[in-house]
Sequence to fold (295 residues):
Amino acid sequence: MRESRAIVFDLDDTLYPYRAFVRSGFAAAAAHIAEATGVPARRVYRALCRASAAARGRELQRVCERYGIAEATIPRLVHLMKWHTPAIRLPRETRQVLLRLQAAWRIGILTNGEPAIQRRKLAALGLPPLVDAAVCAAECGTGRGKPDGEAFAAVVDRLGVAPERSVFVGDDPEADVAGAVRAGLQAIHFVGHRRTARPSLAPHATIARFCEIPAAAARLIGGAQHDRRPCGSPPRIGSAPSGREARFRRVREGSRGGSREGTSRLTLVGDGPGLSPRACGVPPAEQALIRNGSV
Fold:
C-alpha cells in the first residue's frame, strides 16, 4: 500500500524534451510541403531543423521563402504542426523513474496548454497507465492555468493528498516552481532539458538529471523508505544497502524560507559496482576530493 504522499510532474520539457514535439510537427509540415512542391519531405524537414537553429520562431517563413511557397500557406502549416498526432516517445529514463515511484507515491501530471493538444501528447508518450491522474491546468478554476493555485489544488485533490505532502517537479521557473511554492507544495526545479531563469521563489531542490528525482523527493517528504539508489540501478529488493555509500550525485537545494541562496553538496546515493565519480559527472577537481575522502 502506497504512502500518503504525492509527486506531480509538469509535461513539456520535464517528462520529455519539448523539442521532440516540435520536430514531430516539422515532419508533419514537411510532408504537406513535399506534397505541394514535389521537394522530398526529408529535405524539407532538414531545412526546417536548420532554420530552427538559425531563426527560431521563423522556421516556416524561411522554408516557404526557400521553396517559393506563398506566405498565405503559413497559418495552415502552423495549425498542422500544432494539432498533428505527435510521433514522440517517452525517454527510457523517465519511464524507469515513474515505475520506481509507483511503489510509494501517488503520481500526477499537471500541464499547461490547449487540453486537446496536451492529451495527444500524453497518449503518444504512453503516460496514462503510468500515473494516477493527469490534469490540464486550463480546465481548472479560472482556466488561466499554472501558476494559479487552483490548478495545483485540483491535481493534489485528484490524488487525494494534502499539498504539504506533495512534491511538484517542473522546468518553468514561474509557472512550475513559484506556482508550486505559493500553493504549498515542495518544488523541484528540473533543468535537464533546457536552461531557464532563476525562479522568483527559491525551489526546495534543483536537479539536472531525471533519475535523481526519487532521492530528491524522498529527502523533501520522507516516508518509510527513502529511495537513494543511483541512476540506472534496478529496482531494490530487500532492505537498504549498508556500509559506506558513494558520494557522486549533485543536488542543489534551496532553503524552505524563500531565500534564493542555496547550498550545494554531493548527496549519498548508494554503493555499487561500476560506479565512479567520473561516470556520474562529478567535476575533476571534486573527483580527487572524493578519492581522498574529503567530501
